[in-house]
Write a structure and sequence with these properties.
five-stranded mixed barrel; 2 helices; alpha+beta; 2 domains; single chain
Length: 119
C-alpha cells in the first residue's frame, strides 16, 4: 500500500470507531416509569409481583407490582402464555414496555416476553 492509501484506511477506521463510540455512548437509556411518563414512551419498572390475572377470555395477562400504581398488560400476541408459565407471585422482576391508556387508566404494555426479566 502507498502512504496515502494507509492514511485513508487509518482515517476510515477512526471514523467507524467514532460512530460506534457515539452510538453506544450517547444512545438514550430507557427511563423508569413515573407519573410524568408520556403516552407511547418506552419505560421500565421494577418490583415484586403481587398478582397475575388472566383477562376475561384468558388470552391476555394483567400484572400488579408492588410500589407501582399502574398495571402491566401482556397481550396474547406478545407472549402472555410464555410469561404466565415463567413467573409467579412474589417474584422480583424488571419489566420494559410502552405507556398506554385504557379506559382512562394508564398501563404499561409489554411488547415481548423477553421484556420481563426476573431479578
Amino acid at each position: 500500500m502507498q502512504k496515502e492509501e494507509k492514511i485513508v484506511v487509518v482515517l476510515l477506521i477512526m471514523a467507524v470507531l467514532s460512530l460506534i463510540i457515539g452510538y453506544f455512548g450517547f444512545s438514550s437509556q430507557t427511563p423508569a416509569y413515573s407519573s410524568n411518563s408520556k403516552i407511547g414512551e418506552r419505560v421500565y419498572v421494577e418490583g415484586t409481583i403481587l398478582s397475575i390475572e388472566k383477562t376475561g377470555k384468558g388470552d391476555h395477562l394483567k400484572l400488579t407490582l408492588s410500589n407501582l400504581n399502574v398495571n402491566v398488560f401482556v397481550p396474547k400476541n406478545n407472549g402472555a402464555k410464555e410469561v404466565y408459565n415463567s413467573i409467579k407471585k412474589d417474584d422480583r422482576v424488571r419489566i420494559r414496555g410502552k405507556v398506554q391508556e385504557y379506559k382512562n387508566e394508564r398501563e404499561i404494555v409489554v411488547e415481548s416476553a423477553k421484556d420481563i426479566v426476573s431479578l
